[in-house]
Amino acid sequence: YFINGILARARYGDADKMNFEQPLTNLVWITSLLSIALTYVVSYLMIPELKGDTTLWWKLATVISCGTLAGALIPEFVKVFTSTGSRHVREIVKASEEGGSSLNILSGFIAGNFSAYWLGFAILLLMSIAYWMSTMGLASLMMAPAVFALGLVAFGFLGMGPVTIAVDSYGPVTDNAQSVYELSTIEQLPGIESEIESQFGFRPQFEKAKDNLEENDGAGNTFKATSKPVLIGTAVVGATTMIFSIIVALTDGLSPDRVGYLSILHAPFFFGLIAGGAMIYWFTGASSQAVSTGAYRAVEFIKRNIKLEGTTKASVSDSKKVVEICTQYAQRGMFNIFIAVFFGTLAFAFMEEFFFIGYLIAIAIFGLFQAIFMANAGGAWDNAKKIVETEMKAKGTELHAATVVGDTVGDPFKDTSSVAMNPTIKFTTLFGLLAVELAVSLRNQGQSALTHALAVVFLLISMTFVYRSFYAMRIEK
User: Fold this and answer.
1) Largest CA distance in the chain
2) 383 with 86: CB under 8 angstroms?
3) How does pLDDT run across 59-115, given as a tens digit for each residue?
4) 476 in any annotated domain
5) Positions in the chain whose pLDDT score sits under 50
6) Which member of 321, 402, 404, 436 lies 3.0 to 4.6 Å from 349 by CB, making a disulfide possible if both were Cys?
């Protein structure tokens, strides 16, 4: 932080214009490089040799560094698709000029899909390096060294968590700073320029202030987008290690006759893969439905109770009511989703243990790519609107209206469905570990009929709330 502060002041202290993204990028890379250097130093000091092997310290440090490097590389890939300088974002703007909101939406989907490809291969490359390192002598220390290596990647990945959260927090701060400025209506106060000059010693430049706030908000949007794939990546890599612990327990220490069940030739395992994919897509729809209904009810209230023409602000009581409506539907949606996920996890854990492993694998993989797609598509739509507002000065035009539509679609993509994948994957894996152990314990006691009966009951409860997540949240008159 202090190193980055010195660099930022040296470069931008007297500059008339600032690249707001650069100091945030520097912060991530400085943290990553320092972490990698310390990883090698500490590894050398703590484990200079293991069972006579004097090379394992740097091999293990390299594996951890793959995770640390992922925390810095992934944001760079995300910026390719979401930054205001991104060609994908500018493609959205260009498409909107002639195609309106239709091509705006389509171009955002394209950006999200392309981002999932490149980020997926970036994660694959770093995990492959970790796997390759695990083949260089780790087998003499443990069984399944490849999975141990993936656990170390998750450790390195999580080490970048604090700086990822720090740059992610920058986004809401810049967003609210812009909102506070607009709501203050300071430009309309009579004699405000002279008053500021007399009290603070400078003449305010309101147009420049608005431009800086808009550009800063664009940087905030970008780094809000960069954090989501990093955090979802930690969930998936961590879940991989947890799933392996379940596999070890269920296969009696990886005995050959039990490991054979982890194959698509074992039908329940394959069925679990299908169930996991289905759950992720339902989750996406249910979380978006809560946003859709809440937004409809909020707009409905505003149109009926707040005069939009000729007014600059609403009453406090009306504003509170809008917040109350949004909160109410968010909580209703959250309740339906949680109960469905909770009992769904119980149902699949009690159904068949290898079915459940397939389910967990699918939740992690489908959830990873769905979250990356939605987060980056939403970020691209958001910054496309920002370009129209700041660079093109086209507020109030049809082009601006088209990008506002894209941004409105992008908000539940990037701020609701995608980010919620992270706790969903972690909860399902951790809770599922306990649930499947309980189910296996009951089966070993000769209670197979009971576990299957409970699985049916839990599944019916889960499906009831899946049903409610749409039909109880519908927009009805």
Assistant:
1) 85
2) yes
3) 999 999 999 999 999 999 999 999 888 999 999 999 999 999 999 999 999 999 999
4) no
5) none
6) 436
Residue 346 main-chain phi, psi, to 5 deg: -60, -45
Q: How many CB atoms lie within 10 A of CB 296?
A: 13
- Contact status, residue 272 vs residue 354, Cβ threshold 8 Å: yes
Query: Taking the chain, what is the end-to-end CA distance rounded to the nearest angstrom?
Result: 53
Domain contains 477 = no
List % helix, strand, coil for the chain (3-state, nearest 5): 85, 0, 15
Q: How many domains does the chain have?
A: 1
pLDDT value of position 6: 86
Q: Report the half-sphere exposure of 261 (CA within 13 A, side-chain side).
A: 19
Instruction: Report if pTM > 0.85.
Output: yes
Could you tell me the CA-to-CA distances from 116 to 124, 157, 169, 224, 367 in Å, in that order? 12, 18, 23, 17, 11
As a whole number of angstroms, the distance between CA 132 and CA 145 comes to 10
Cβ contact 96:53 at 8 Å: no
* Rg of the chain on CA atoms, in Å: 26
SS (H, E, C) 18-47: CCCHHHHHHHHHHHHHHHHHHHHHHHHHHC
Task: Find the domain containing 390 and state its range.
Answer: 2-471
Integer Cα distance of 87 and 80 in angstroms: 7
Which pLDDT belongs to residue 364?
92
Give the integer Cα–Cα distance in Å for 90 and 263: 45
The two tokens of residue 99 are 């195609």
Evaluate whether residue 33 is within a structural domain.
Answer: yes
Tokens of 470: 């749409």
Dist CA 96 CA 389 (whole Å)? 14
Q: What is the pLDDT of residues 307-325, one digit of tens each?
A: 766 666 667 888 889 999 9
pLDDT at 314 (0 to 100)? 66
Q: What's the distance, CA 122 to chain centroid?
A: 16
- Six-digit token pair at 408? 């409105």
* Phi, psi for residue 53 in degrees, rounded to 5: -90, 115
**267-305 and 418-444 helices, crossing angle to 10°:** 140
- 399 in Cβ contact with 99 (< 8 Å): no
- Residues 6 or more apart whose CB falls under 8 angstroms from that of 333 comprise 286, 287, 289, 290, 291, 293, 294, 469, 473
Distances in whole angstroms, Cα of residue 226 to Cα of each of 82, 196, 263: 8, 37, 35
Does the residue 176 lie in any domain? yes
